[in-house]
Amino acid sequence: MPGNQRQSSLEEHLPAGDFSAWLLEMGSALLGQRDSNIPCGACTACYTSSQFVHIGPDETDSLKHIPEALLFAAPGLPAGHVVLGYDERGHCPMLQNGKCSIYPHRPRTCRTYDCRIFPATGVEPGNDKPLIANQARRWQFSFSDEAGRLRKAALEKAALELQHAATLSGPAPAPTQLAVAAVELLSK
């Protein structure tokens, strides 16, 4: 019985909010004008999915609150850019007792991450992120008008076109990068 309850809770839909409002807020978050506001509840999928967290050299407050031994040079980026890795379980080392131990000082990547970006863009998170994929599948956007539905269709089309263009010029971008690029394109 407990296993069945867990499975059914994974399949329940979660209200993601009005799509047009979400797109505006997400665009602002990606521009650094605000933090994402995600109704995560008890979900910690992003903390427990073996994700690297990029931290830019300008994020001095975050860097002060993360032990230097946990930071590594970010591959392919200029000096000063680092990544925070994950522990042997795939968990963020800042996750303590089910909560972020540096939440008020968390990096920009964490401030803007929103798994609703996957259902919004039609991009799949990838087989290596099953907890995030499960959570992303649960989100259900609402639409206050037909313009919102058209925006969603345009965003999905942008993501497909970006993916196609990227695969023609080299390896496909990571799903999160692809979804973010589509939102940034439509937010201009």
Could you characterize what this model shows?
This protein is of the alpha+beta class and 188 residues long. It has two domains: 15-38 and 114-126 and 143-188, no CATH class; 40-107, no CATH class. It is 44% helix and 12% strand. The protein is built from eight helices and seven strands; from the N terminus they run αβαβαββββαααβαα. It has helices spanning 2-11, 19-30, 60-64, 108-112, 117-121, 130-138, 146-169, 175-187, and strands spanning 14-18, 53-55, 71-73, 82-84, 95-96, 99-100, 139-142. The strands form three sheets. A three-stranded antiparallel β-sheet has the order 2-4-3. It has a two-stranded parallel sheet with strand order 1-7. α2 (19-30) crosses α8 (175-187) and α7 (146-169) packs across α8. The protein starts with a helix and ends with a helix. 27% of the residues are buried.
Global Rg: 17 Å
Percentage of residues in strands: 5-15%
Mean pLDDT score, rounded?
A: 91
How would a crystallographer describe the biggest sheet?
3 strands, antiparallel
Number of domains: 2
Total E-strand runs: 7
Distance between the termini: 49 Å
Order of helices and strands: HEHEHEEEEHHHEHH
Short descriptors:
three-stranded antiparallel sheet; 7 strands; 188 residues; alpha+beta; 2 domains; two-stranded parallel ribbon; 8 helices
Record the SSE blueprint.
Blueprint lengths: L1 H10 L2 E5 H12 L22 E3 L4 H5 L6 E3 L8 E3 L10 E2 L2 E2 L7 H5 L4 H5 L8 H9 E4 L3 H24 L5 H13 L1
Parallel strand pairs: 1-7
Antiparallel strand pairs: 2-4, 3-4, 5-6
